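$ run holo --ligand "PRP" --emit tokens
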Amino acid sequence: MDWQEYVDEILISPEALQSRITDLGTRISHDYAGKDLLLICVLKGGVMFLTDLMRKITIPHGIDFMAISSYGTGVRQSDGIVRILMDLSTDIRNRNVLIVEDIIDTGHTLDYILRLLKARDPASLRVCCLLDKPSRRQVPIAVDYLGFSIPDKYVFGYGLDLDEFYRELPLIATLRPDRYNQFIGQDKT
Ligand code: PRP
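-- output --
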């Protein structure tokens, strides 16, 4: 089905996304000047954000990926159980690590990743997240670089999926309420 048939509203336009990402890239480039910066992208949702953000970072930096699953396929789990599906290929000891995520919802995923990576002795460990749903938080997380704070609505596009589709959209859309039943129970964002 055409993605537009699922849209309630365009929450964040392509222009607004790119403008904010340019600002974040500028700030990160300034803050990490002269430092050994490693961006860690959390798959799959963070991939669009990472590829745009890294093109706005003007200092040398490395990238790596990890995959985390906090929710089972089909049925939503809200118990905060997080699993590691794919680990980093890089040793992060003494490196300046910046985690790149698409969205913080309950906070369980980032809480798990932060504790996991901190134990590996990076020189520094910070979080860059595109979207935040503060009203959904169950675990407090300090976000160092934030794109947008958004209301508790089901969003998709720009890395975030609707039943694994539409991650490629250049914008963030909210799901039409009359389509909720089709997707509730499969994904929480
Ligand atoms: C989403 C998102 C975060 C996590 C945030 O991932 O990318 O990693 O949920 O939720 P939390 O704050 O409640 O832990 P998801 O499990 O949907 O996987 P995906 O990125 O592969 O779509």
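-- notes --
The domain at 15-154 is CATH 3.40.50.2020 (Rossmann fold).
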